[in-house]
Amino acid sequence: MIEKEVIDNFLPEDQFKIIENNLLHPRFPWNFIPQAYSGERAQLVHEFWNSVEGNISEQKQLTIPFINRLRPAAILRIKANLQPKNIEVYEDPLHVDLNKVSCTTSIFYVNTCNGYTYFEDGSKVESVANRLVTFPSQTKHAGTTCSDQVSRVVINFNYHKYYD
After folding, report:
1. How far is 68 from 105, CA to CA, in rounded Å?
2. Beta-bridge partners for 142
3. What is the value of pTM for the model shown?
4. Cα(29)–Cα(74) distance, rounded to whole angstroms?
5. DSSP state of 139
6. Domain boundaries, the chain
7. CATH no. of 5-161
8. How far apart are CA 38 and CA 96, in angstroms?
9. Is 134 helix (H, G, I), strand (E, B) or coil?
10. Residue 164: predicted pLDDT
């Protein structure tokens, strides 16, 4: 069994609603990616932070509740992904985040849908709004599309944990 931690109701309801309302709003600034390096099908992404440029989003205030709760020692990347509805649920290929860096990955689910994250051992974490799953970044995992909502939206965090 793969080491992972799932936390439901990760953010207080008022903070969650701000995230949800912004990322699901029709005017949220998404960028089209025809195909990711790890083979995922076309999706929309919004990069909040990367280790080269730092904060690169005008929406960076949306990441503050996560940073306050996760308390990372160093942030490597924060990126939101939106996969549009499909006629059925399709699994993307397994991959690891940040190939050459061992860190921690957390995935925050913005909306509830029949999509999920799956892992190389066959386990799954269902897409449930305000849920966070955390696991070592070198763990092979992948997301899916959904078929019961307009889209599946997650925020992916790659960071070094702070140890007291």
Report:
1. 16
2. 118
3. 0.95
4. 25
5. S
6. 5-161
7. 2.60.120.620
8. 8
9. strand
10. 66
Give me the tens of pLDDT residue by residue for the chain, a chain 164 residues long: 789 999 999 999 999 999 999 999 999 999 998 876 566 678 899 999 988 887 788 999 999 999 999 999 999 999 999 999 999 999 999 999 887 788 999 999 999 999 999 999 999 999 999 999 999 999 999 999 999 999 999 999 999 998 76
Give me the residues paired with residue 45 across strands: 31, 81
- What number of residues does the chain have? 164
CB 125 within 8 A of CB 142: no
Torsion of CA 113, 79, 9, 164, to 10 degrees: 150
- The token duo for 101 is 């860096």
- The Cα–Cα gap between 17 and 42 comes to 27
Q: Which helix (H) or strand (E) is 13 found in, with range?
A: helix 13-23
CA distance 59 to 137: 25
What is the distance of C-alpha 113 from the center of its chain?
14
* Spatial distance between the Cα atoms of 148 and 72, rounded to a whole number of angstroms: 34
